[in-house]
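Design review, sub-item: ligand-bound model
Attendees: FS, YL, KQ
YL presented the inputs for the coenzyme A complex:
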Amino acid sequence: MSGLHLRLATDADAPALLAIYAPYVERTAVSFEEVVPGVEEFAGRIRECNERWAWVVAELNGEAVGYAYGSLHRKRAAYRWSVEVSGYVDERFHRRGIARALYGELLARLAARGMCNAYAGIALPNEASLALHRALGFSDIGVFPRVGRKFGRWHDVAWLHKVLRESPPEEPLER
Ligand SMILES: CC(C)(COP(=O)(O)OP(=O)(O)OC[C@H]1O[C@@H](n2cnc3c(N)ncnc32)[C@H](O)[C@@H]1OP(=O)(O)O)[C@@H](O)C(=O)NCCC(=O)NCCS
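KQ shared the predicted structure:
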């Protein structure tokens, strides 16, 4: 898409990206977070994410319109080559290929950092996110029934998986 620019996010992006995220926290169960985090907290998440994985932002004609990032799957050592991924696009810019572009960049960066498996946990219902991940080559694993409760109702979470690389790097990667 012309005018679309992808890059790693920095602290300075926190206010704009939080503005994209906040409505999904406040009005939907897409995020299981219940209180919108502060800008400082959000900036800290971006920083910590980029130390180990990647947090990618999409700018359309200079305006941040979406982001996608990798995060911890589970803490035990053997899980270290597996990563969870998620992304949010400003509602005004849906269905223009922004998430597809963001994930392309994110998954390439995660693979370059040695990540071998990407997992997405999608709170249901969320047809758009299911369709996005399937379109990007993720396969369905299964569903955790009624694992989250928000706004007084239970939500199932569907899990999907994509192999990013067959095996981890032989040598430690430069950070
Ligand atoms: C899911 C989300 C990130 C998709 O972002 P997007 O920029 O609109 O997606 P794209 O335009 O890149 O779509 C890529 C593909 O995903 C699928 N897709 C995306 N939205 C869809 C929808 N509403 N219905 C059906 N398929 C959809 C299609 O296959 C699409 O390809 P196509 O347009 O060529 O048919 C966006 O809807 C969003 O921000 N939703 C709220 C937050 C969220 O649910 N995040 C995921 C948390 S797990």
